[in-house]
Amino acid sequence: MSVNKTSNRSEPVAIETKAVGAKQATDTIIELKGVGVHYGRNHAVRDVSLPVERNRITAMIGPSGCGKSTVLRSLNRMNDLIPGARVTGSVTYHGQDIYSSAVDPIAVRRHIGMVFQKANPFPKSIFDNVAYGLRINGMKDDLSGRVERALRGAALWDEVKDNLKKSALALSGGQQQRLCIARAIAVEPEVLLMDEPCSALDPIATARIEELMNGLVEDYTIVIVTHNMQQAARVSDSTAFYSAEVDDAGDRYGFLVEFDQTQKLFSNPSDSRTEDYITGRFG
Question: Is residue 24's pLDDT more than 70?
């Protein structure tokens, strides 16, 4: 697989990635060093450094406006789509800087997929929703088999297998979110980013998504932003806690307070600000 392009858009330069589906020893797949995100003159997120480890679930928590979703979007260059946004510092994937001028952001998003807060199925059939990314990425061989495998991977196949030609918009909210997960994994990414995927769902649908994540992490590396601390405690291996402050110029900015193994962060945090947040003293 490749995320590189040369300056004259000739043959891409390959990077090493390990096959999806093969359980690997824990190691760092994405690393952030001194990452900042700017929107025009606003330095919205400052100095974030943390590793994302293979085949583990990393959660990002914190109060509204602390930059956790902004950091998540920096992991696959989704911030590029926002006018005036730019990322400083270093975000590496398999040791390669994804913000290098030699890197194609579309290829980055092919390897590092994303599921958004609100389910966003296309106004197409269930089958065509899952097949969409496969078609635009030229992955048309065994299309039906690929769609089925993605729907099975998202724990949705048994519910929709007899209705693949029906509109995806007829599905329930929880089913729509699982469909979006199927659409994301159909193109076989290595990393799956999830931005508050359960915030619009009821408790039963939320439990299904959490159960699904626990299964998907066998084959994928997952980073989830959640406003639900109990969810982070239930599903994640590592947790990053972010907070926000106002600088001397009166500008609000987000920053990473603490990153640790989830059990350690929730039971014995190193920073008093983390303890204040998880015990409900603020936020």
Answer: no
